[in-house]
Design goal:
Length: 264
């Protein structure tokens, strides 16, 4: 069988094989074995890079499908050339891996991850591409945050005095937020940004000027909510936060490594 897929994860198996976690357009998430791929003579190795988009032929096996043929569709080269973009792509891949079940088809989500990786690879606003994807993915997977009315009392929200409750799954109004003292404030502009991300309107996002304070507020809210949905912090979050500090400090984050590895 043939599938259009994105490579999410890889880990070594046996002496020369690898187990590849793919997110496919028509088969959902799945794991497959690439036999002999770590040998220098393998014809598959160069086409199974992390975060690349591929066309893959699969043969059914007893426990796992076997990858028999691969054709590169888009290597998303920009991700490989910039460590900051690499970190964001790791976060996308881990989020998708953590929140999806194997063999659950979701074509819209597949299109969303392909778009997100393309934007992270090429856009001059890769962080916003990640946040746009986070909201879109949460929505498509049934975790759409409540941003229109108070998640508790269902009353319309005033512009100020609101909080975001990850546990409750949305915004609390000024009256209800006293019931969730740990819920952080959320500004009117952050609410607008999250609502915009839900519309999946990337072109409008690119036309907006977003200051660093608002960007950090949105990132923090999404991080807390995503981790709540995933029921634990993502391993790649620490990697991304370390890179963010260096990125904001002006440290060059360029890598020429031909093969990407999982963050520790």
């Amino acid at each position: 069988m043939r599938a259009d897929a994105v490579v999410l994860r890889r880990h070594d198996f046996g002496e020369a094989d690898r187990i590849i976690t793919l997110f496919t357009e028509n088969l959902g998430k799945m794991r497959a074995v690439a036999k002999g791929v770590r040998r220098p003579t393998s014809r598959l190795g160069g086409h199974l890079e992390l975060f690349s988009r591929i066309q893959v032929m699969l043969a059914r096996g007893r426990n796992l499908e076997t990858i028999t043929q691969v054709e590169m569709v888009d290597p998303f080269v920009g991700i490989r050339d910039d460590l900051w973009r690499t970190g964001l792509a790791y976060y996308v891949a881990e989020l998708l891996d953590r929140l999806t079940e194997e063999h659950a088809e979701n074509r819209e989500l597949y299109r969303a991850v392909v778009a997100a990786l393309g934007r992270i690879a090429t856009s001059d606003r890769p962080s916003e591409a990640l946040h746009h994807f986070e909201v879109r993915a949460l929505d498509l997977l049934g975790y759409r945050p409540e941003l229109k009315v108070c998640v508790r009392c269902r009353q319309s929200l005033l512009p100020h005095g609101n909080a975001f409750s990850a546990v409750s799954g949305g915004i609390l109004c000024g009256n209800c937020r006293v019931l969730a003292a740990a819920a952080p404030d959320i500004s009117a502009n952050a609410i607008r940004m999250l609502r915009l991300y839900l519309t999946d309107d990337w072109s409008t996002t690119l036309r907006l000027r977003i200051d660093s304070g608002l960007a950090e507020e949105v990132a923090s809210i999404l991080r807390v909510y995503t981790h709540s949905v995933a029921e634990s912090a993502l391993k790649s979050d620490r990697f991304v936060q370390e890179l963010r500090r260096e990125y904001n400090a002006g440290v060059p984050l360029v890598t020429s490594a031909p093969t990407l590895t999982e963050p520790s």
